Amino acid sequence: MTDLKKSGLQVYRWFESRLGLAGQVTEMAGHPTPVSAASWWYVFGSAAMVLLILQVMTGILLALVYSPSASNAWPSLQFINHNLALGWFLRAMHGWGSDFMIAIVLIHMAQVFLFGAYKFPRELTWIVGILLLLLTLGMAFTGQVLRFDQDAYWGLGIGASITGSIPFIGGPLVHLLLGGPIVGGATLSRFFTLHVFVIPGLLLGFVALHLLMVLKLGINEWPMPGRIVRKADYEKNYQALTKSTGVPFAPDAAWKDAVFAAVMMLSVMACAWFLGPIGPSGVPDPTIIQTAPKPDLPFLWIFAVLAYLPPELETAVLLIAPPLLIGGLLLLPLVAGEGEKHWSRRPVAILMVTLIAVTLGIFTRLGTYAPWSPQMDAWSSATVPAEFLAHRKPLERRGAIVFQEKQCRDCHALQGSGGQRGPALDTVATRMTEDQIIRQILQGGGNMPAYGKALSPAETKALTSFLMTLHGHQLPARDASLGTMPQNGTHPVVPAIAKPE
Amino acid sequence: MSQPANHQQLPEKQAMGPDKNIPQQWHGTEQEKLAARPSETTRRAFLFKLAVGFNGLVGLVMAVPIFGFLLGPVFKKRDDNHAWVGLGEVGSFPLGETRLATYINPVTGPSDGDTGKISCWVRHTEDDRFQVFAVNCAHLGCPVRWFAQSRLFLCPCHGGAYYEDGQRASGPPPRGLFEYQHRLTGGKLEIFAGEMPTLSNEACAGRKPLVQLETSAANEQGRPA
Q1: pLDDT of A95 strictly over 80
Q2: Residues A125-149: pLDDT tens digits?
Q3: pLDDT > 90: percent of chain A
Q4: In chain A, what residues touch B102 (CB-CB under 8 Å)?
Q5: Which chain B residues have a beta carbon less than 8 Å from that of A162?
Q6: Domain boundary among A342, A369, A396
Q7: In a domain, A433, yes or no
Q8: Which of A26, A198, B25, B157 could form a disulfide with B142, with the two C-beta atoms 3.0–4.6 Å apart?
């Protein structure tokens, strides 16, 4: 046993005398850190790195089988999912790992921001961190493309359309993005190159730089009101604090990092096991147009913003907002590199984080059910509620048929079923008079197309009389200037309807 | 640049010279010592700079093919991507109806698979009058669907709506549907296609300005051959 130990030690020494790594690693791991920084709040950065390693490992395994060609990518994913032992689990881990990584990176960023860690002398650490965030999002977007399904195909179309709206250079840029005139094999292989070679290379390089700076500059001390950062004396003060309250990073702080990282990996595995792999959805055949493309979770908020921006603002916002936002994040530590670190003395910081989190959350939530999109099959799948047909005249029932047949239901819900693009019409007759309804149908407006050409006068008449029955238990709206009171809650007496032309 | 480094080494050399513990063979030959004289360094520094410059020049030359390859798709001429492609017999598009047609993109690569197939909407308006719309929404390129009953194209992504003649009806699209240039050849409908239409690469190969569709102008383009 002692012989074995001795020869083991010999082997170790053989390597160590040539590499000299162990000494350096031990020194790095044991670097002193203020005891206040050995906190559960300081575990997110290392967890993000562990998740990155998980992504690299699962990614390499997937690349053993994945085929980055437009004709074979989708079948190869199906093959991984269904024909390879545990292939589905590997894909699931890679997919959920990506969501976890983005979440952890964002939490890490919010924590670092609220703790003022981006201030002097850690400005560059923050700037590299912003680049890491952008690269992580780049990995998520390119990864979503590699899952070459319908969503990926039309998602590329969305990317190309946004690029195409850039003035002057938009056209050539689209070709550069797609690798050709259309979304196809060349597009997929260049996103594969980005996802597998270019971005991971940059990501690992910048992570190393990020880490190196953490080691060189020390872990941010726990902020306290009154511990003010000044360029003149911060480093001296930090060293004094580390001298009086310092503990070695490993093991005093590192055990918390290790526990949290393990919990994160277990969570990724649990999500993968119980929720399964993400996609692929339909086959990427552009002639199959019965599809409602949607981006992955991290980009749903952009999808929602694009639905709500007015057309005339869209290009400007799309082209101006991202550089401003990213520029602002990059410049933050250079502009606010000194002063108070503690959140209680930085109310604007708290407001900003809250506002951004709530905004992203709301837009993401909206993106999950996309109320702005017509529900394409509602007209043929959602029936008119029976109570809207009971005790109605034949003309009104005929109007209900027109209502379904002309796809009104795709945008207008009745009793909660149907599209949400336009207002629900359960009580439309209490809000609009008959004339107003006719005008709205025939001429459209307020985001509704005009149906004048798609409806015959008879259809319009039937449809209107059906809609006028939708007033719940209230009286229907009437034009006060006409002066005729409705009788017994029935329809108001109005002059003859204008005949549509 | 290299001079300060050499100066730093000098004291070490002098210190190492008389060390009796180091074997004679490791003291360096007279020739080596002569070659390592600092007076020589200016020429080496010059040669180093020359070598760096030479490398830079070679790098510059090499950058031409590298960037040429990378930017290849950008410099491709528009007409190289486009061609007249057939959509089928005129008879397969009934008068007064709008139908989905499919063609193979004129430029496809070996690994394109199904993505080389492209759809478009064909509207037969009069005897020999047609309109051929790109399937891509003018907003963000999602595939619009035709609803014959309400005579509308609807987009599933953000709810863009277009009238039957391709004009914008409502929603976020900044313009009407993209329309392909088309012609009738021997009873067959052909369109000039080859590129995904976006606001800067319009389906009609730049022969029409960025305008809302004008039916009269569009119809004139569809003259029979």
Answers
A1: yes
A2: 999 999 999 999 999 999 999 999 9
A3: 86
A4: 287
A5: 140
A6: A369
A7: yes
A8: B157
Find, among A244, A217, A241, the residue nearest to A227 by Cα. A241
Kindly tell me the sign of the dihedral angle through the C-alpha atoms of B186, B189, B194, B200: positive
Site of tokens 């329309």 = B179
Which of A153, A372, A421 has the CB atom closest to B115's CB atom?
A: A153
Would you place residue A491 in the very low, low, confident or very high pLDDT band (cuts 50, 70, 90)?
low
Residues of B within 8 A of A198 (CB-CB) are none
* Binary contact (A289, B139; C-beta < 8 A): no
Nearest in space to A479 (alpha carbons), one of A496, A464, A465, A493 = A493
Residue written as tokens 């639905």? Answer: A307
* A363 shares its domain with A384: no
What's the domain range around A182?
Answer: 28-369
Considering only CB atoms, B112 lies closest to which of A71, A293, A373, namely A71
Give the CATH number of the domain where residue A71 resides: 1.20.810.10
Element (DSSP H or E) covering residue A463: helix A457-467
Nearest to B143 among A291, A408, A450 (CB): A291
Asked if the Cβ–Cβ distance from A163 to B198 is below 8 Å, we say: yes
Question: Which residue type, as a one-letter code, is found at position A59?
Answer: G
pLDDT digits (tens, 9 = 90+) for B24-59: 888 888 888 887 777 666 888 899 999 999 999 999
- Say yes or no: A297 and A392 in one domain: no
A46 and A179 fall within a common domain: yes
Q: Is the peptide bond before A251 cis (omega within 30 degrees of 0)?
A: yes
Does residue A407 belong to the interface with chain B, where contact is any CB pair within 8 Å? yes
Q: Give the residue-averaged pLDDT of A13-37.
A: 91
Q: Does the pLDDT value for residue B221 go beyond 70? A: no
Question: How many Å lie between the alpha carbon of A236 and the closest alpha carbon of chain B?
Answer: 31
Q: What is the helix, strand, coil percentage profile of chain B, to 5?
A: 35, 25, 40
A281 touches chain B (CB under 8 A): no
Residue B110 preceded by cis peptide, ω within 30: no
Q: How many CB atoms lie within 10 A of CB A70?
A: 26
Residues of A in contact with B115 (CB under 8 A): 70, 153, 182-185, 187, 284-286
Residue B41 touches partner A, C-beta closer than 8 Å: no
What residues 127-156 of chain A have any CB closer than 8 A to a CB of chain B? 153-154
ipTM of the modeled complex: 0.87
Q: How many CB pairs under 8 A join A and B?
A: 212
DSSP annotation of A194 reads I
Evaluate whether residue A53 is within a structural domain. Answer: yes
Residues A427 and A449 in one domain: yes
Q: Are residues A172 and A65 in the same domain?
A: yes
Per the listing, tokens 């790095």 go with A28
Q: What is the CATH number of the domain that holds A412?
A: 1.10.760.10
Instruction: Specify the DSSP element, H or E, that contains B149.
Output: none
**What predicted TM-score, i.e. pTM, was given to this entire model?**
0.87
Are A181 and A327 members of one domain?
Answer: yes
Q: What is the pLDDT of residues B94-120, one digit of tens each?
A: 999 999 999 999 988 888 989 999 999
Amino acid identity, residue A377?
D
Residues A286, A331: one domain?
yes
Chain A segment 156-185 residues within 8 A of B by beta carbon are 157-158, 160-167, 170-176, 178-185
Q: What angle do CA B2, B19, B21 make, to 5 degrees?
A: 125
* CB contact B88 to A (< 8 Å): no
CB contacts of B147 in chain A (<8 Å) are 407, 410
Instruction: List residues bridging with B85 in a β-sheet.
Output: B191
Q: Domain for residue A215, yes or no?
A: yes
Total domains in the fold of chain A: 2
Q: Is the pLDDT of residue A483 over 70?
A: no
User: In order of start, what are the domains of chain B with their CATH numbers?
Assistant: 2-72 (no CATH), 78-221 (2.102.10.10)
Asked if residue A493 is part of any domain, the answer here is no
Of A351, A369, A387, the residue at which a domain comes to its end is: A369
Are residues A205 and A309 part of one domain?
A: yes
